[in-house]
Amino acid sequence: MNQISEKELSALNDLLSGEELLIKKFQVLADNCGDAEMKAKFTEISNEHKEHFRSLYSQLS
Question: What sign results for the dihedral spanned by CA atoms 34, 28, 53, 5?
Answer without folding.
Answer: positive
